[in-house]
Amino acid sequence: xxxxxxxxxxxxxxxxxxxxxxxxxxxxxxxxxxxxxxxxxxxxxxxxxxxxxxxxxxxxxxxxxxxxxxxxxxxxxxxxxxxxxxxxxxxxxxxxxxxxxxxxxxxxxxxxxxxxxxxxxxxxxxxxxxxx
Length: 132
Description:
MetI-like fold, 7 helices
């Protein structure tokens, strides 16, 4: 169980962080807003985050639990180990994404723009420019 948790959190956290860092680095309209939203979980204290997750997923009072029950899905992480694992992985990934995002974004922004522009002129597409 610990290995599954570790691989899920590391794999999903790194993949999502890299995706959003590349998205923000790709000079999109509103990238400041994206950057701010991605850094926000890093600023939330773990105790506050725990209360937030409890409030959202409490079997009796949770907002998301109530919504899922309204759709006909019986959500009760206290009785279902699969749902509990999903919730713990989701909360851990949410907390980890912003930390990884900062490092990936810093690394992507340290690449000189002249190299990226030269690759674009040579005909490299966005995916090829990213991986090379």
